[in-house]
């Protein structure tokens, strides 16, 4: 099969923390030589695309910020398209808030003013923040938005709680699920990918380490999917999952075998 575009996950596929994953450099080289248009899509909203490019550079990979999309980007685009006039209350980190405000969206510190509550990974999350989120969602009309469903993020020191963990805490206390969950594999994420690659889905490949986000995104978008075993998914997860990739690769280096 000749592919013309590829969607690449970052954490667990290309890097772990700031370290390159063995085989990733070889795989990226191979994809580059095959002339595939590439887009890195990460569900980690703690860094903006330029900071992500810098992180990839530290791991030895050259990537332009324009070819990187994060859950922060997808959330910002979604809110700008659908809730442009809403007052936002954010449980999330500074990079996400900056991304939202740079797009002209209104983020407030006073939870009582919120029309929409955006919840994401927040490494300073505490009881007071949970109280504020609960008060913000007091009005049933308030829209509850999650940036991405990832429960954990693979890091150099092991897995860390991700956005999904914080979103679950808020959803639990508020007593309702998010109205919208962005990031992979959401429809808004699929749209961003389709618009960027601008290719028929059948000509595109999605490579990632997660079944419920990366592989699900590719499946829903009609693209060929490849799971790499360098991240969070082990054989048991694969056996138990309803989401099945078209290919399973030991690492990104093996992408050569399916091009
Ligand atoms: Mg990953």
Automatic annotation (TrEMBL):
SUPFAM superfamilies: HAD-like. GO terms for molecular function: phosphatase activity. The keyword Hydrolase applies. This is HAD-IIA family hydrolase. Transmembrane segments: none annotated. The keyword Cell membrane does not apply. Keywords: Hydrolase. GO terms for cellular component: cytoplasm.
């Amino acid at each position: 099969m000749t592919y013309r575009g590829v969607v690449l996950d970052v954490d667990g596929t290309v890097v772990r923390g700031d370290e390159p994953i063995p085989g990733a450099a070889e795989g990226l080289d191979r994809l580059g030589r095959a002339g595939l248009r590439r887009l890195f899509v990460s569900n980690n909203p703690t860094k903006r695309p330029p900071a992500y490019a810098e992180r990839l550079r530290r791991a030895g990979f050259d990537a332009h910020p324009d070819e990187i999309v994060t859950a922060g980007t997808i959330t910002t685009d979604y809110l700008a398209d659908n809730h442009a006039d809403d007052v936002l209350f954010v449980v999330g980190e500074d990079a996400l808030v900056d991304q939202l405000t740079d797009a002209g969206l209104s983020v407030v510190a006073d939870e009582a003013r919120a029309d929409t509550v955006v919840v994401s990974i927040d490494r300073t999350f505490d009881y007071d923040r949970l109280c504020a989120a609960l008060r913000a969602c007091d009005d049933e009309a308030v829209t509850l938005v999650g940036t991405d469903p990832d429960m954990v993020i693979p890091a150099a020191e092991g897995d860390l709680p991700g956005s999904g963990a914080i979103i679950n805490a808020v959803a639990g206390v508020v007593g309702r699920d998010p109205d919208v969950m962005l990031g992979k594999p959401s429809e808004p994420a699929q749209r961003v990918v389709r618009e960027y690659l601008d290719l028929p889905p059948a000509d595109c490949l999605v490579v990632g380490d997660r079944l419920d986000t990366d592989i699900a995104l590719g499946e829903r978008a009609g693209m060929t999917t490849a799971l790499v075993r360098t991240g969070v998914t082990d054989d048991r997860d694969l056996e138990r999952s309803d989401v099945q990739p078209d290919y399973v690769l030991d690492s990104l280096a093996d992408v050569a075998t399916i091009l």
